[in-house]
Amino acid sequence: RNPSNRLPPGSLGIPIIGQSLGLLWAMRTNTGEQWINNKIKKFGPISKLTLFGNPTVFLTGPVANKFIFSSTDSLALQQPQSMCRIIGRRNILELIGKDHKRVRGAISYFLKPEALRKYVFKIDQEIRHHLRTNWSDHNQVKILPSMKSLTFNVICSTIFGIERGAREILVQDFAKMMTGMWSVPVNLPFTNFNQSLKASSRIRKELTKVIEEKRRALKLGERSSDEDLITYLLSLGSDNGETLTEEEILDNAVLLMVAGHDTTAIVLTFLVRHLANDPITYAKILNEHEEIAKIKAPEEALTWDDLLKMKFTWRVAQEIMRTIPPVFGGFRRVIKDVEFGGYLIPKGWQVFWNASVTHMDESIFKEPEKFDPSRFEKQSEIPPYCFIAFGAGPRICPGYEFAKAETLVAVHYMVTRFKWSLCCKDNTFVRDPNPSPKQGLPVSIEVKASL
Ligand code: HEM
């Protein structure tokens, strides 16, 4: 057959622009899922279109997910150009093959349960401090910005060992850097992209100082290699080819700050919103946490073993992520011609995956519209590549356990020490590209017990 006849159905639309504006508009108006479903109705689960300048094949369903997440020899992860320039070209998302494995291995070491156990105390301290200073004396709190600040501080403290005073310099620049992450990469004064690049360069300067100080302390034996991720990365031996270059350490430190804080903040924000609207789930969660709090002194920090008891809470968080995936979808670059479902996907194109379509498939999740945390009671019954909030395959999110620990500790202190109600009953949200409730979700706060 003529190769062009083997391309998936659909239309590439106007060159370069294609259907990008339609998708962006749909995401902004919270109809992204509908936009995608219309496409599936019209062309089926495999179709072509043009997104963000590139001819693209959109694939959906567990078999397609497996193909996208596992075909590392024909597909490479693709981020918007703006993101690569802001975070740095040696960040893990840009790496493939041996380089990806090496950097992922080093980062994952710090995010595994064995290492995380040690940090529950630090996570606990940071979250209590945040709630004490930002919730306790306030009648109203905007949840999304509050959760973003909370998760940023947790990452700085646990992963980077950056103390409170030194973090404040980073916080503002970090917010500025995020604004241009998904912008058109035009570097002219006053474009979002330009502001982001400038903020990123200031963050890198600060991080370089942090790295230098840790290198010095490591040399003098004032620090052990497992105290924080940066010190660990600096200590890796060059003899077995494990070392990360200075550029890689810097780029991946920035990447981890980005990847590790927004997503968890979104889960916590939608959890707060859901609990305000669902008294039955709230009562069950509260009960789970009161049982744990009952056997601890008020000042006593949570431990890893306490977190293991918070099973229902994590099921609720997973159901939140099924219904509102923090990451809407993503792209892979096609590095060599490849076939899927009888169609040709040519080299140079990109492949687009989306989590919602699979998460809302009634053949996988019965009555998908219903909020039902019990779906996650038996994880093994959920078929592979069906719950993809954290991705899957060799690039599955290495921060899963970290996000889980952070979410559980935060929920514990929020439900046992505070009560809240929504100030704005409007339940809609926009995707920007991450889901954000209107006005950042303002809630009225009542203190139940001190922290
Ligand atoms: C609820 C919270 C989180 C969600 C929903 C989430 C989601 C995801 C998803 C979907 C991917 C895969 C992207 C793809 O294959 O295209 C990913 C990758 C990644 N995530 Fe997360 N993430 C979360 C928290 C975190 C945290 C806390 C960290 C670190 C502290 C982190 C670090 C990373 C890194 C480094 C990658 C890239 C892995 C690689 O390319 O090998 N994430 N995440």
From TrEMBL:
The keyword Glycosyltransferase does not apply. Belongs to the cytochrome P450 family. The gene is LOC120266578. It holds the Pfam family p450. GO terms for molecular function: heme binding; iron ion binding; monooxygenase activity; oxidoreductase activity, acting on paired donors, with incorporation or reduction of molecular oxygen. Keywords: Heme, Iron, Metal-binding, Monooxygenase, Oxidoreductase, Signal. Its cofactor is heme. Heme binds at C397. This is Cytochrome P450 716A1-like. Gene3D superfamilies: Cytochrome P450. The keyword Phosphoprotein does not apply. GO terms for biological process: sterol metabolic process.
